[in-house]
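Posting here for the record, re: iron/sulfur cluster.
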Amino acid sequence: MVFHLDKCIGCHTCSIACKNIWTDRKGAEYQWWNNVETKPGTGYPSKWEDQDIYKGGWRRDDAGRIHLRGAGKAKGLLNIFHNPSLPTVEDYYEPFTYNYLNLIEAPAGDDQPTARPVSLITGEPIDVKMGPNWDDDLSGTPDYARNDPNFAALSPAEREAMFQLERMAFFYLPRICNHCLNPACVASCPSGAIYKRGEDGIVLINQKVCRAWRMCVTACPYKKSYYNWHSGKSEKCILCYPRIEAGYAPACMHSCVGRIRYLGVVLYDADRIQAAASAEPGELVDRQLDILMDPFDDTVIAAATANGIPDSTIKAAQDSPTYKFIKQWRMALPLHPEFRTLPMLWYVPPLLPVMASVTQTDGAQESKLHPVAKTWDDTWLYDTSTEELWGSVEQARMPLAYLASLFSAGDTAAVADRLRKLMAVRIYRRWKTVGDVSEAKMTSTLQAAGLTEQSADDIFYLTALAKFNDRFVVPPAHREQAMEMIEFTGDVKGSTGFGFREQPERGL
Amino acid sequence: MTFARPGALRYALMGFVATWMVAQAATAGAAETSTGEANFTRLCSACHTIGGGRRVGPDLKGIGDRRDREWLVKWIASSQTLVRSGDPIAVALLAEYNNMPMPDAALSADEIRGVLEYIGGASAGSAQGAPAAAPERAATAEEILRGEELFRGSVHFTNGGPACSACHHVTQDAVVGGGVLAMELTTSFTRLGGPGVRAILAAPPFPVMAQAFNGKPLTEDEMIAVGGYLQSVGQRPESYNQAREDTFKLLGGGLGGVSVLLGVYALVWRRRKTEPVNREVFARQVRSQ
Ligand code: SF4
Ligand code: SF4
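Prediction output follows.
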């Protein structure tokens, strides 16, 4: 999966599509398997990125081995009846609805009737304290944006600079379960209820096996496993597997207005997952990229075939838009690779070019103004002039260190590399369509970014023009083959019918 | 065959054992061709003396002069039949001796007469006590404790006799669920006195008990220990299943235990997350009430 953050408009259509299909049930109202956060911000649940609070993900010890931070065998057993690092419901938000009936049924009175908010957990009227995107578009608020855990990576000076720019700079971060290659949720489950499907890599919680220990809620560093207080089971994004099996894109991707979402097959070398997850902090992204295999390489194709991967899946891997963004063009980065779950949702980082800057003045200009002109006491000057068309990557409105904290475990060079490519494609297209950029400038930026005109065209196509079938390349599910690997379907032939493993409720 | 609970099995088994023992005793008695003296020693001397004073039952010296001979034969054969028939002397006797019924002697009328003969002869002679009339001494605290163990069966009798609690119960905390086949012995010592208890232990007059201890007599020390134990049980009525005044100890122990546990929990989970991360923000928010 790839999310192209440059294109997200923060409309939340994805979240609503998901909610309407999967989580508008009792106990699941607070769960947003897909949520869209404003960054900088504390996100949902609040400060989920701060693993000192939530103890999620893997930790690498001095010997280079990785351990779950807050779960695992010994810790899991010790805490099995009392899981100490769980988010409280207020960390998500207390789900609520409004007492709409009062608008119609209130007796006649002096005031307009109101619809008071009512908790969906207790049924009592509540004061709404928080919502899943409470700080939406509010970059710069002291309570939320300024408490973004990623600011830890920034020097006080850089932080100060962001607070001055805060009114202009924010971007959206849509999040779903990353369907990780090294999922902490799977590793943490004492009941063995969570598994990663072999045929498509979707991570699922078996609702019949789940015993409500909630270790996955703690272990998932992205807080994408949720506890349903009504059913007593944990639930998470299922990547709309019934849709995928039928050849459709997941609902959030299907409905995405900004068309930021790409879905495709990526072949990987499962034998090297542990090594990749245990890599040095600076090498995490590169090691993860290493285990993603080139679907055009003959040895890879042979190995995949030998492992029983159908030709149709290999073909889908060759057509995969995600492989292109992630490995071929190296334009995407995983979210918080330092959690070491090897997330398979990659983000093309947002390029927020400088359209203006703020500089400090000595106030000398003000003496030249007419006395009636409005003046400000502060000495900041909002300056919209830039030397170049979009400024340079290093001047981007989001400091590189901030993006690096999100997407590359602090490696600013990796982020700059991706942003440079985004910038180069823009300059290339500007040169091609508007023509106010010199060819020399265009060529040099493409070269600096390691792109050719051909690849720039391809990137442009996949970014801006791609049709449905270009963005989502879902191979046939081959579900029957996966099932036959586990059980002999002939056993049920001639009994209650093919495929009914349980009696249907209406009877047969 | 299944039983609802293990207790039922135990009682049923005891029933079988008892029936068998009675049958055995009866045969043994019929086969016996002993003289009056032997029968007296075996059956009567546990409770009666001839000129030795009262024990469980009356001193029998000169009994032939005091009571009608045929009445005596009937009484010895089955005292309870006589009591039930409303015989005034029989009823008065039973009342005089603490309503402790005299066991029926498994003897023929002739044998009974033989015993009476012997009593008549002996009354003329010197005083007679129980055959096991050994020097009496009080049991030490240690022996009382041993008596309790013997009673409960946690320590076996030397000669292999069955534990008392197989058939008897006493109301004391240490004995849980003693048998219900025979008398409840809590007040036995008070009723029978030391020599009475001792005599019964030395030569059980009750057919089932006699059969159970046939060839497996108690040793001298064991008799003192069990007697001492029964005495202690009778003397300490306050220890009978009474709630001990441990309320404060229990309360203290409970509170102490709870605080230790809570302390351990607090230590194990000292870094637990107890509050929402935005607690301060929420605290500042305006509330409608
Ligand atoms: S993001 Fe998904 S797969 Fe990864 S650890 Fe969390 S719940 Fe598991
Ligand atoms: S639907 Fe697409 S554009 Fe809209 S918020 Fe979700 S990811 Fe962004």
